[in-house]
Design brief:
Elements lengths: L1 E6 L5 E4 L6 E3 L26 H10 L3 E4 L23 E3 L4 E3 L5 H11 L2 E6 L6 H12 L5 H8 L10 E4 L14 H18 L4 E4 L12 H10 L5 E8 L6 H5 L1 H22 L7 E9 L4 H6 L16 H16 L4 E7 L8 E3 L5 E3 L3 H10 L3 E3 L2 E3 L2 E2 L7 E2 L1 E7 L4 E8 L6 E6 L6 E10 L18 E2 L3 E4 L2 E6 L3 E9 L2
Parallel strand pairs: 1-21, 3-4, 3-12, 4-7, 7-8, 8-9, 9-10, 10-11, 11-12
Antiparallel strand pairs: 1-16, 2-15, 5-6, 13-14, 15-19, 17-18, 19-20, 20-26, 21-25, 22-23, 22-26, 24-25
Helix pairs in contact: 3-4, 3-5, 5-6, 6-8, 8-10, 10-11
The structure holds alpha-L-arabinofuranose.
Alpha-L-arabinofuranose binds next to loops.
C-alpha cells in the first residue's frame, strides 16, 4: 500500500467557490433537446412536453446554470425561428451538425425548462451569420419588461414576465474554421465589442462572456485571447475556455494525467488576461468561464457513419466508462483549485450528447458513470475551496512528468461541514492518505463515498444502469486531528466531515 499526506490549513483559502462552477450545457445537437429535455409524446412528459424524469435528475444534480442553445449550433441560429406558435415555426437545414432543426424548442421554452429544473439559463448569441443587432433584440425580447416591439411580442407569445437572463456568451468558438462564419481575432474582437455595448445598453445588469480559443492547440491560442480582450476588456466579465479529452490510444496513465493539461491551460489563459489588464492599465480582474469541458471521443466512429439531415439524430452519444469518471473527478478538482479565477464552468453537455444523463426516446432515463463525481462536487463542493498540500508518489506518462498519483482538494462549507475530494490514479496499489486536520478540531466523518471498479471500461446502460455507482466506505479513522483514509487504486473518493456540537 502506498502512502501520502495531505495538509489542510484554514488559512489556505483559494476562494469562495462560485456555485456556477457546476454549470452544464444543452445545445441543439443530437438528442440533447429533442428526446432529452423535450419529448411531448413521452409518458412522463409534463404539460409543456418536458420529460419529468430528466427534470428530476437535473434537479438532483443541483445544476446552477445551463448554457444554451450552442455551441456550434448558435453560429447559424435565428432565435426568432423558435418563438411564437409552434405550428408556424420553420424547419431549417442546420449547418453546424448537418441536421434538421424543427424549432419546437426556443428561448421561451428553454427559460421555462430552466425554471422547472431549478436552474438559470446562460444564453449564447449568434455572432457568426448574425451580429450585434440580433443580439440586442434578443436581450430586449427576454429581459425588457414590456412596452417595446420585442418585449411586447414575448408577452403576446404568452410570457408576461421577462426571463431576466443574466449571463450571455458573445458567440461560440469563433476562432475555429469549422464555425459558421468564423472570424479572425480582430474581426471577432470588434464585433464582440459592439454587440456587448448594445446588449448592455438594453440591460446594464447582464454579464458577458467573450470567446476565448476553442482549445489550447489552436495555432492562434494566446494571441487570440490577447487581441479579443484588447478590444473588449472593459465591457466583458469573462473569457471562455473549452477542453475535451479522450483516451484514443488506451493509455490510462496518460489519460488520467490530462488534468495537468487543464491546469496549465487555466494558468495560461489567466496570464493572458493579466497581460491585457496591465497593458490597458485596468483595475478590473478578468474571470474565466470554462463553459465546455468533458471527456469526448467514444462516439467518433459512430459519428463518422451517421446519416445527415435527420431530426434529432443520436449523435455524439458517448457511453462513459469508469475510467472517464476518474478523469472527470480530477477535472472537477482542477476547477476547484482555480476557483479564484474560474467563476463559471459547464460540463458539456447535460443530456444524451456527451452527457451524464442518458435517455431512450419513449423509454427511461439513467445515470452515466460521470454523473457521480459531478453530483458529489455539485452537492458537497460549495463554500470555500482550501488548497491542500499533497505529498504523494508521482509517475511519468507519455506526455507528462511528475504526475501526482493523488489529486485532492478540500471544501469548507462554512456551516460546520468539510469535504475532501480525492482521486487515486495509481493503477496497481491502494493508497493510505494521512490528512492533517488539526485546524479543524471536533470534526467527525459523516459520510465516506468511494467509486472504484475492477473494470476500467465498465459502463452504465439502460439494461444495467447501476453497474458503476459509488458505495459507502468505513475505511477511515480520525484521531488526534489526523484523518487516515484508504483510497483504493483507481478511485474517486468523497470524505465528508461534520463539526460535532
Ligand atoms: O459540445 C459540443 C461542441 O464542442 C460544441 O458545439 C462546440 O462549441 C465544441 O466544439
Amino acid at each position: 500500500m502506498k502512502k501520502a499526506t495531505i495538509k489542510v490549513d484554514k488559512d489556505f483559502r483559494i476562494a469562495r467557490i462560485d456555485n456556477r462552477i457546476y454549470g452544464s450545457f444543452i445545445e441543439h445537437l443530437g438528442r440533447a433537446v429533442y428526446g432529452g429535455i423535450y419529448e411531448p409524446t413521452h409518458p412522463l412528459a409534463d404539460d409543456q412536453g418536458f420529460r419529468k424524469d430528466v427534470l428530476t435528475l437535473t434537479r438532483e444534480l443541483n445544476v446552477p446554470i445551463v448554457r444554451y442553445p450552442g455551441g456550434n449550433f448558435v453560429s447559424g441560429y435565428n432565435w426568432e425561428d423558435g418563438i411564437g406558435p409552434k405550428e408556424l415555426r420553420p424547419r431549417r437545414a442546420e449547418l453546424a451538425w448537418s441536421a434538421i432543426e424543427s424549432n419546437q424548442v426556443g428561448v421561451d421554452e428553454f427559460a421555462e425548462w430552466c425554471r422547472r429544473a431549478g436552474t438559470e439559463p446562460m444564453m449564447a448569441v449568434n455572432l457568426g451569420t448574425r451580429g450585434p443587432e440580433e443580439a440586442r433584440t434578443l436581450v430586449e425580447y427576454t429581459n425588457f419588461k414590456g412596452g417595446t416591439y420585442w418585449s411586447d411580442l414575448r408577452i403576446k407569445n404568452g410570457w408576461k414576465e421577462p426571463h431576466n437572463i443574466k449571463v450571455w456568451c458573445l458567440g461560440n468558438e469563433m476562432d475555429g474554421d469549422w464555425q459558421i462564419c468564423h472570424k479572425t481575432a480582430q474581426e471577432y474582437g470588434r464585433t464582440a465589442r459592439e454587440a456587448a455595448k448594445v446588449m448592455r445598453w438594453v440591460d446594464p445588469s447582464i454579464q458577458l462572456v467573450a470567446c476565448g480559443s476553442s482549445n489550447a492547440q489552436m495555432s492562434t491560442f494566446g494571441s487570440w485571447e490577447a487581441t479579443v480582450l484588447e478590444h473588449t476588456y472593459d465591457l466583458v466579465d469573462y473569457i471562455s475556455m473549452h477542453v475535451y479529452y479522450g483516451n484514443r490510444d488506451g493509455d490510462t496513465a496518460n489519460f488520467l494525467a490530462r488534468s495537468m493539461d487543464m491546469d496549465h491551460f487555466i494558468h495560461s489563459v489567466a496570464a493572458t488576461c493579466d497581460y491585457v489588464k496591465a497593458k490597458t492599465q485596468s483595475k478590473k480582474e478578468m474571470y474565466l468561464s470554462f463553459d465546455e469541458w468533458n471527456v469526448w471521443y467514444h462516439a467518433d466512429a459512430d459519428n463518422a457513419k451517421a446519416e445527415k439531415w435527420r431530426e434529432a439524430p443520436a449523435y455524439n452519444e458517448d457511453i462513459y466508462t469508469f475510467e472517464d469518471a476518474l478523469l472527470v473527478g480530477s477535472m472537477l478538482i482542477t476547477l476547484l483549485r482555480h476557483s479564484d479565477r474560474v467563476k463559471i464552468a459547464c460540463l458539456a453537455q447535460l443530456i444524451n450528447t456527451i452527457a451524464p444523463i442518458m435517455t431512450r426516446n419513449g423509454g427511461p432515463a439513467w445515470k452515466q458513470t460521470i454523473y457521480y463525481p459531478y453530483l458529489h462536487a455539485s452537492l458537497y463542493g460549495r463554500g470555500t475551496a482550501l488548497n491542500v498540500l499533497v505529498d504523494a508518489p508521482r509517475y511519468d506518462s507519455k506526455d507528462f512528468t511528475d504526475v501526482p498519483i493523488l489529486d485532492a482538494i478540500m471544501v469548507d462549507d462554512e456551516a460546520g461541514g468539510l469535504t475532501l475530494f480525492a482521486v487515486n490514479k495509481d493503477m496497481e496499489e491502494d493508497l493510505t492518505a494521512d490528512c492533517c486536520l488539526r485546524d479543524y478540531p471536533g470534526y467527525q466523518v459523516s459520510e465516506h463515498l468511494v467509486m472504484d471498479c475492477g473494470d476500467l471500461h465498465a459502463v452504465n446502460t439502460e439494461a444495467e444502469p447501476e453497474r458503476v455507482i459509488p458505495h459507502a466506505s468505513t475505511e477511515h479513522t480520525l484521531s488526534d486531528g489526523i484523518l487516515t483514509v484508504k483510497l483504493p487504486k483507481l478511485s474517486w473518493n468523497v470524505v465528508r466531515l461534520k463539526k460535532m456540537q
